[in-house]
Write a structure and sequence with these properties.
By secondary structure, the protein is mostly helical. The protein starts with a helix and ends with a helix. It has a two-stranded antiparallel ribbon. About 75% of the residues lie in helices and about 0% in strands. The longest helix has 30 residues. It is built from 17 helices and two strands.
């Protein structure tokens, strides 16, 4: 089967699991499964559920690469667990979408996946609640998972550990947004990115490994702790690499569903900006003047919006300085390092290696 068809097959299965966990029209039977002890009439459940599920469904139905559950299922497959991780797909994908809903509120973002951000359509109160629901709804996957209790307990621990870190990373980002004049170091940025973005890739990898172990795959051996450490670190690195490339794409040509340069309007202190401020990537480098230029450009872009001349001015400066090229190279380096390590650790040779190599090309 051609790789393209194989990914399509796998993604269709993932989508079916997501739809089962949060159907397009949640009925009373679904409500009773999710809230088995809540005494509410079939009529009243529709009124109460709509503000909870409609915003979440709206965002999910807009699409997305679904690369996190795909990575999880590929790692499970590579470790001999077959499709044992497939039922856990909502656990990683719903949490990702929850973070997007909250992130858009915190950044006052106008668009997400080509449409108005959820909080603009449904109101901030509803969006916050629906986003929070998306973090907790997929915990039903753990309750319903056909695995021994010891594996369910481990999965609960993994979820809690990673979601705490995700919120710490978001807190760092918020603190930087609130203090416009503060510019983090490149090392601080990469730490934030590992927490905020890389963490769900790490979580996906470890879910895949645990699912393989529960199914009797090769993850169940005396070296599993070291292997899981490598899996987690490398997948986290993969997630950071993808984020850096997305940030570069946003500035160079725009990414699907967002306007080119809206990261500047948001005042996002991304890697290209920090390289521009911290590293003299060419001979025309007056770092003090660059700091003033960036601060002024961010302020003008925030005030006048996406069509402000400041947006194009700073993008041009980032390109001409070599900062965009340097950031892109760093992102690709992280992805390549992760690819090499994961191939050696999990995928080896043959079909599984080919699948993983194709996965890298698909999402980067």
């Amino acid at each position: 089967m051609p790789l393209k068809d194989e990914y399509k097959r796998r993604l269709l299965k993932i989508e079916a699991v997501l739809t089962s966990a949060l159907p397009e029209n949640p009925d009373f039977a679904w409500f009773n499964k999710v809230f088995p002890d809540v005494d509410i009439s079939a009529f009243e459940h529709k009124r109460c559920m709509a503000p909870l599920t409609e915003p979440a469904l709206d965002l999910l139905e807009r699409g997305g690469k679904r690369w996190r559950p795909l990575l999880m299922t590929l790692i499970c497959h590579g470790l001999g667990g077959g499709e044992a991780a497939l039922p856990l797909s909502p656990l990683v994908e719903f949490c990702h979408n929850a973070s997007l809903i909250h992130d858009d509120i915190e950044d006052n973002s106008p668009l997400r996946r080509g449409k108005p951000a959820v909080h603009l359509l449904y109101g901030e109160d509803t969006a916050i609640n629906s986003g929070s629901f998306l973090y907790f709804l997929p915990l039903t996957c753990i309750e319903n998972w056909d695995a021994p209790e010891i594996f369910k307990l481990e999965l609960w621990k993994l979820w809690a550990w990673h979601i705490r870190r995700l919120h710490l990373g978001q807190s760092m980002d918020i603190a930087w947004h609130r203090e416009a004049s503060f510019m983090p170091s490149i090392a601080q940025y990469l730490t934030m990115c590992r927490l905020k973005t890389g963490v769900l890739a790490r979580f996906s990898a470890l879910c895949g490994s645990l699912a393989a172990e529960s199914a009797g795959g090769s993850s169940k051996n005396e070296k599993k702790h070291e292997r899981n450490r490598i899996l987690g670190d490398s997948s986290e690195k993969l997630g950071v690499g993808f984020q850096i490339l997305d940030d570069v794409k946003n500035l160079r040509g725009g990414i699907t569903g967002k306007k080119r340069g809206d990261d500047i309007v948001e005042g996002k202190k991304s890697l290209p900006v920090l390289i521009f401020l911290n590293e003299p990537v060419n001979k025309n480098s007056n770092l003090a003047e660059r700091g003033k230029f960036v601060e002024m450009s961010f302020a003008e872009a925030k005030k006048d919006g996406i069509d402000a001349p400041a947006v194009e001015n700073i993008i041009t400066a980032l390109e001409e300085s070599g900062a965009l090229t340097a950031a892109c190279a760093h992102g690709r380096q992280l992805i390549e390092e992760a690819r090499q390590t994961l191939t050696e650790t999990v995928f080896g040779a043959g079909e599984t290696k080919e699948l993983f190599e194709g996965f890298i090309e698909l999402v980067s």
